[in-house]
16067_t:CDS:1 (Acaulospora morrowiae), 517 residues
Amino acid sequence: NVVRNYTFELKKVPLAIDGYSRLVWAVNGQYPGPMIRANKGDTFNVTVINKFGSPATIHWHGIDQKGSNWYDGVPGTTQCPIPNGVTFSYVFNLTQSGTYWYHSHFVAQYVDGLKGLIVIHDPEDPYKKEYDYEYVLEMSDWYHKPTGDFVPEFRSPSYHGGDPMPDSGQITGVGQWNCTIPACTPTKFATYKVEKGKKYRFRIINTSAMAHFTVSIDNHPLKIIEVEGTIIEPVVVNVLSINIAERYSVIVEANQPVGNYWIRANMSNCSLPGNGPATINNETTVFTNLDITGILRYEGAPDTLPTSEAYPANVSNCHDQDPTTLKPISLSPSVPTGDATRILLVVGVQPRPVLQATINNSSIVMDFSYPSNKKVIDGAGFITSDNAYPYDTPGGAIEIILNNTERTRTHPFHLHGHSFWVVYQGEVGSWNQSLDSLKYNFDNPIYRDIVTLNEASLTAIRYYADNPGVWLIHCHIEWHVEMGMVAQLVELPSLFKQSTIPNQVLELCEAYDSSNS
Ligand code: C2O
Ligand code: CU
């Protein structure tokens, strides 16, 4: 067990990601933040020094936090925010391997920049010998204004529009924007160098606020081998569909003539408003001119732009890669197929003027100064707007049914504290079918930590209750989080009551309260 120590200094720095300079909520001056790496079984000790001038937290997306709920990084659920000027250490063991990421979970801070990649190597990875090098292909939408400038307007009852629209997009810190103002310096393209005859593992990750991506590399098929930490039987695609917060590893063979090839990351807006155009930040609701590109450059190729042709777009935007094609290799334990404790969550967006994104008709209201996990230990009760769902049978199978009642939007849902089996993913329009007749897929279903709810459909996920604490389940479209499309799962409260929250976590609340008074 090796302890991997990292220090993150959080500071706002001016960066021109897409040519346009703005203040970025950066880690050690970088965007995306530094990648952190470890081996399965190691421990991370990440010391965060907050110099943002405002509070912050960091969530370790996809990391189970087995036995360390208080290091999950969710303000109001697992900790109080880290006030400006305070240093705090996240310490947790790694029982998983694969591709993960970290991001702020405090207001919309990750959209302003606080995010980075986590890679956990497994010495027993069956694909280890099938590639020579590895790369990260991180992509997202990008906003020119700090989110604090428009979120209050977006949240106000008098606003009648959709989600705030991005200005551009970026690949691994390099974006393109129609650079027509004097204050803009045109950027180059994110460029990945390859050597003919070699094989590359690309860890692909979408860290957007709201954009779904389809990703391809001209003339180079993508062999999918990992989905969010789960090693799968290989699936070869030309175009990969990747929703917010999802991760895939693919193997790319540099077996084409020496030259330059476009890497294409095309954005879709899957959050089209049902009641009028968006007016915040950008006048359009259709993502035009927001597609981003990078270059795959062979050693020996000239420093010129590619002329390669795109694959036909044959995947459906705003949906997941077909989950029934993604087959885990040697997963243990296996999917619970018997009776399960069922929790039904109905997902919707209420129209303006009361616009809120809801789960079971309630929008969460976070109390940053009294985290839910502390409430459980104190024996304090929950109220309706806490959106809290308890279950208390150790080892029991849990089934969450997500009923997306919306006809025009898809929502990428993420669960904290667990990966889960996707045991049912309904067709568009299947939202009102009877739960008794659900046709589960128990045939080695995919195990992951994000699933996209199709338009007006039912989705069922399962996992075992073996991780005491309070865990979020939420849409990962940041604007829906801002509107409250979040619920809390109170897992094994009787067991959790016996645990002791470390002092440095409790002290955060005192520091936060005094910084606020
Ligand atoms: Cu990527 Cu609640 O998190
Ligand atoms: Cu959503």
User: Anything to note?
Assistant: Helices lie at 151-155, 372-378, 478-482, 493-496, 503-516.
